[in-house]
Amino acid sequence: MFSKQTYLRRRESLRKSVKEGLILILGNVDVPMNYRSNTYHFRQDSNFLYFFGIDHQGMAGVIDIDNGRDYLYGDDVTLDDIIWMGPQPLVSEKAASVGVDHSASSQGLYKIIEEARKAGRKIHFLPPYRAENKLLLYKLLGVHPDELAAMASVELIKGVVALRSVKEDQEVIEIEKAIDTAWLMHTTAMKMAQNGVYEYEIAGAIEGIALAAGGAVSFPIILSKHGETLHNHDHSNKLNTGDLMIVDAGCELSSKYATDHTRTIPVGGSFSQRQKEIYQIVLDAEVKAIEAIKPGMTYQSIHYLAAEVIGNGLKQLGVMKGNITDAVAAGAHAMFFPHGLGHMMGLDVHDMEDLGENHVGYDDEIKRSEIFGTAFLRLGRRLQEGFVLTVEPGIYFIPALIEKWAGERKFKEFINYDKAQEYIGFGGVRIEDDVLVTGSGYRILGKPIPKLIDEVEKIVKS
Predict the structure, then answer these.
(1) Which of 10, 22, 63, 158 minimizes the number of CB atoms within 10 Å of its CB?
(2) What is the sign, positive or negative, of the torsion defined by CA atoms of 226, 227, 232, 234?
C-alpha cells in the first residue's frame, strides 16, 4: 500500500473526469474452491486497490462527486472471525489509512445507494467480472446481471483508463521489484531445461520462486515444448534434447504489480541451425519494435513494423515471398505471427482489460483491425510517457492453420506452402520484455533476462 496522499490524489483526479453523481467501486470477496470455507487465494479488485488501497475482502468504496466526500463500507470481524483469522483492523481504521473520513458497515452501502436512486442521481460503476459482484450490483441497483456490462459507465471507464495508463514512479519501482523475481524464475527455467525433465517440474519450481518472494504468479504459467499452442497450460510433456521450450511467466508481488516475460529455451543447451534462424528473426523483430517505442507513436504501427521484420526474415528462408509490406497489410504474416505485439501492464498483467480492451488499447483515432491476427492486437493507440507495455513477437508453425490455409491456397502469392510444411513439428518461438515509455523513448524494465542466442545457450549448459 502506498501513502495516504497517493489515494487521496487519485480519487480527486478521478472526480474531475466524471461530471456528477456517485462513483461506486467494489472490492472482491473470497471465492470457494469446492465448499464455502475452502477458498481460492484472495485477489483484490485492481481498481479498488488503485483508488482505495485496501487489500481486504468484502469492501466497497464510494466517491461522491457532488459533495466531495469519500466513503468506505465493510463489516468489522466478529469474535468467531478473530479465532480463525486473528485480529483485524476496524473498517474505520482501514478508511483512515487511505484518507477516507466516512466509513460504515456494508448495510450503509445499501443506504447511500438507495438514497441516491430515490434522488435520481447518476450512479457510475465499472463492468463487473466476478459473479459475486454482479449479484451485489443486482441487489443494489436492480440491474439484471446480463445487462450490467452495457449499463457500466463509459465516462467512468475512460476516467479510470486515463489515470491508470500513466504509471507513477512508485508504480514502476514496484514492477521492477517484481522483475527481480521474474529474472530468477526465467533463469531457473533455463537451467532446468534438460533431457528427461518433465515440464511440470520446471513450472512448479518457478511458481515456487514467485510464492517464496511473497507474491504469486501474475497468470497461470505457460510452459511447453509445444510452443505452437500460444497459451499452452499443459505441463505433462517430458523434455528431450533438441526440443524448444517456451516459458511465458510473470510474477505478482504483494503490491499486486505484475511482470510478463517470455523466453524460448533449447533443451540441453544448443539451438539447431534451423532453430537459430527462426529465433534470430523473432529477436530482431523484438529489438526493432522496442527501439521504435516513443511518445506519439501508435503501437499499431510498431506491431506492423515487427510483422514486416518477421515477414522479411521468413522470406529469406523461402517460407514467405513477394512484397512483404503488401503481405502484412493483407494479413498473410498471421500464418506465422497470429497475435498482437503486446499489451498494457501494471496492476494487472493485461492492465485494465476488465474495463474492455477497446477502451484500454484503442480510441477515437486508432481503431482495431478486423484482419485475422492483427485483430488480436490488444494495444494499438498512441503511446504516452508513463505507459508500461509488453513487446512479444513470435513465430509459430501451427499444423491446423497451415493445413487450412494451404488447402484454401490462401495468400499463395505470399506464402510458400511447400516450404512452410517442412516446419511442421518445429513448435514456436516467442520473446517478450516489459518496457516503460519515457519522455524521449523507452526503457526496458528490470534486470535483463538473457535472450541472445549465446547467452541462453550458456545458461542452459551451466
Answers:
(1) 158
(2) positive
d(CA 306, CA 302): 6
CATH number, position 158: 3.40.350.10
CA 390 to chain CA mean position, Å: 9
Domain end call among 165, 194, 210: 165
Same domain? For 128 and 198 the reply is no
Beta strands in 185-254 (DSSP E): 216-217, 222-224, 244-249, 251-252
What the block records as the C-alpha cell of 166 is 500513466
Task: Over range 1-29, report the average pLDDT.
Answer: 96
Please give the angle made by the CA atoms of 31, 35 and 40, to the nearest 5 degrees: 35
Mean pLDDT of the 165-194 span:
98
Q: Please determine, for residue 338, whether its predicted confidence score (pLDDT) is greater than 90.
A: yes
- As a whole number of angstroms, the distance between CA 438 and CA 441 comes to 5
Residues 57 and 153 in one domain: yes
Asked if residue 186 lies in contact with residue 209, where contact means CB atoms within 8 angstroms, the answer is: no
Expressed as residue numbers, the domain containing 369 is 169-461
Residues 73, 109: contact at Cβ < 8 Å? yes
Same domain for 148 and 244: no
Do 386 and 453 have their domain in common? Answer: yes
pTM: 0.96
For the chain, what is the domain count? 2
Nearest-angstrom CA–CA distance, 334 and 317: 17
**pLDDT(82) > 90:** no
